[in-house]
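A.,

Following up on our hallway conversation. Structure tokens first:
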């Protein structure tokens, strides 16, 4: 079954504003929320890239220290219900919504970082150009067919909007 990601309309609006503002550099942010069941993720909030994020034509690196403290703040504010779900970033002028090698490496790193507490990270790519972006959502996990080998599986998810 294809995974489903629910996005609040105000969050999508913020994403579009940020994508337009930095075009044609990449930009992005982080999602907070919860899994309603093993296949359905509900995003409740997004955290922007932060004051020291690096945005360039082909790369985006968030201000991780700042994001980390924002993630902690949201987590407490939500009575420990909303956790770090994943991230989004733009691929300006990209026609196709597939993950880059760098994106896959980033997902693998998240899964392998115990403190991230996220073994099924979501990654949403916003592809296109100013005022015309398409969302492509991916849910990743590691499959370990052999003890010294793991394989990153990324399933394309359906995006639905609410709120
Ligand atoms: Zn990317």
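Then the amino acids I'd put at each of the 163 positions:
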């Amino acid at each position: 079954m294809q995974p489903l990601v629910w996005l609040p309309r105000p969050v999508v609006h913020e994403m579009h504003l940020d994508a337009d503002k930095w075009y044609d550099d990449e930009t992005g942010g982080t999602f907070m929320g919860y899994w309603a069941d093993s296949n359905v993720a509900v995003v409740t909030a997004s955290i922007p890239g932060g004051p020291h994020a690096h945005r360039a034509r082909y790369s985006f690196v968030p201000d991780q220290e700042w994001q980390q403290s924002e993630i902690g703040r949201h987590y407490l504010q939500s009575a420990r219900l909303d956790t770090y779900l994943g991230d989004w970033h733009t691929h300006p002028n990209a026609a196709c919504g597939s993950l880059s090698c760098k994106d896959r490496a980033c997902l693998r790193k998240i899964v392998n970082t115990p403190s991230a507490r996220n073994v099924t990270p979501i990654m949403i790519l916003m592809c296109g150009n100013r005022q015309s972006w398409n969302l492509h959502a991916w849910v990743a996990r590691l499959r370990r067919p052999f003890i010294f080998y793991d394989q990153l599986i990324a399933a394309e998810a359906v995006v639905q909007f609410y709120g």
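Residues 89, 91, 100, 102-103 surround zinc ion (CB under 6 Å). Curious whether your intuition agrees with the design.

B.
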